[in-house]
Amino acid sequence: MDRAEVDAKIRSLIEPFNKKGVEIKDETTFQNDLEFDSLTVMDFVAEIEDEFDIIISMNQQAEIENYGQLVDAVHKLQADA
Amino acid sequence: MSEGIIQPDQPETHEAHAGDKDLFSKFDDIIALREGLLSQGREDPFNLVMEKVLSPTRAICNGRETILLGTYNYMGMTFDPDVVEAGKQALADFGSGTTGSRVLNGTYQGHKECEEALREFYDMDHAMVFSTGYQANLGIISTIAGKGDYIVLDIDSHASIWDGCAMGNAEVVPFKHNDIEAMEKRLKRIPEGAGKLVVLEGVYSMLGDVAPLAEMVAVAKKYGAMVLVDEAHSMGFIGENGRGVVEDAGVIDDVDFIIGTFSKSVGTVGGFCVSNHPKFEIMRLVCRPYVFTASLPPSVVATAATSIRKLMHGSNKRAHLWENSKNLHSGLRELGFKLGTEEPQSAIIAVIMPDLEKGAHMWEALIRNGLYVNLARPPATPAGMTLLRCSLCAEHSEEEVGQILEIFEKAGKETGII
Q1: B166 Cβ neighbours under 8 A, 6+ residues apart
Q2: Per-residue pLDDT tens for B164-180?
């Protein structure tokens, strides 16, 4: 799956969590722009993990602050899997 | 999940603001929140002082005689005459403290006797006593799961488990609370050859719910994981011999490590890990929270050992504690309170409050009427709930449970919650 396909999939997965309808750009941050709390993060990460059949450990999550970084990380993880 | 006060169990990272000089400015939000709560003229739920302790179930709190329903003193051992006597004797014979690490000058006869009592209690080969329960989780988890290993844990785990994960170098993979399928999916995705540790709790302390350990331990074993179960809130009264939910679920022989504490049913302070792992004793040399701290005072290990031995024969007390738990659960339900579990699953009954403000109001009404419970609030609670957490004691009489229900009814009506 190339980066654009990963991006498209994650974009559809994030929709139900994007309650305020924030415009999603690569630099959109989860904590400040999307205001995800820890429970939302857990549910959202679980959706992505199930969709791509990968693990995004908390250690990896700590490095991911914005949307673009998430797409990059998932793209790499699913290519390695 | 822990009795965490106003902090989440998972460690937070505070964002620094540009230009800040005062390192304390990162706490401004929490300072404001606390001041807001206190400015409404409320008693501070997190600053209660017990001026006198009359028994395991009664104290003078803020000048009032109060029934204690939030102490985790499940078996009421704190004033047991044999336990108190053992502590006095050890204090006289061995002095007030060891002033040393377990691996240097801090292992006395009493520490060995305490570990012996634990081995007998759990019928396991090895027991290691830590200075607190927090250090037991911190030490064992951070030491056994290293770089390249995976820790799979319940998202509602206690702060000491999260901190053990944070202190080590393993990959940390949480799953949805008590969700067997979510746990299995994660285990399945771990790369082949990686070491795996599954961390579970017998009783989760926020809602008082029990984990489906029979299924979870079987799944963990299917994927070749080692299993650690924290039984802090079950020791002494769940399972035929009081060994915890692992015993009740019939999986104690499949579990690699049980973590426990002396600060609940045992009635003093300290923590431990018991295990049948043939190499377990090496932990005493490599586990930093065990090595780099002073050992427990002789009086503490003497009270703990005496208490543990008495808990082996505590079946009558155990039965009474379950009666209390059932009576309180059904009584609160009949009064119209919303509870954390459908059925009483442990000695913790969590009463769910509509929001933080009403919860704080209700807590204050209870304390004014002479009843102490724990106020638990987000982010320490699951799903952002505000809870009034009640933990029962085997020494609560049937009449006392009746009194507790009367106070709940009065306070609930005063605050408009029921």
Answers
A1: B11, B172
A2: 999 999 999 999 999 99
Give how many domains chain B has, as a whole number: 2
User: Most A CBs within 10 Å: which of B151, B173, B185, B206, as the mutation test of the A interface?
Assistant: B173
Q: Taking Cα atoms as reference points, which of B269, B340, B11 lies closest to residue B161?
A: B11
Could you tell me which chain B residue has the CA closest to the CA of A32? Answer: B15
Residue A77: both structure tokens together: 């993880």
Helix (H) or strand (E) holding B360: helix B356-368
Distance CA B200, CA B151 (A): 11
Q: What pTM does this model have?
A: 0.94
Instruction: For chain A, list the domains and their CATH numbers.
Output: 3-80 (1.10.1200.10)
Q: Write out the residue range of the structural domain in which residue B247 sits.
A: 80-311
Q: Residue B227: inside a domain, yes or no?
A: yes
Inside any domain, residue B32: no
pLDDT digits (tens, 9 = 90+) for B187-227: 999 999 999 999 999 999 999 999 999 999 999 999 999 99
* ipTM summary value: 0.93
- For tokens 């008693």, the residue is B43
Q: Are residues B265 and B318 in the same domain?
A: no
Give the DSSP letter string of A18-47. -TT-----TT-BTTTTS---HHHHHHHHHH
Torsion of CA B283, B289, B292, B295, to 10 degrees: -90
**A37 belongs to the catalytic site:** yes
Instruction: Give the residue carrying structure tokens 């290990």.
Output: B301
Are B381 and B263 within one domain? no
Strand partners, B59: B53, B66
Residue B13: pLDDT band with limits 50, 70, 90:
low
B97 lies in the same domain as B211? yes
> Are both B144 and B266 inside the same structural domain?
yes
Residues in A lying within 8 Å of B, measured between beta carbons: 31, 37-39, 42-43, 46, 49-50, 53-55, 57-60, 62, 81
Last residue of a domain, one of B294, B311, B328: B311
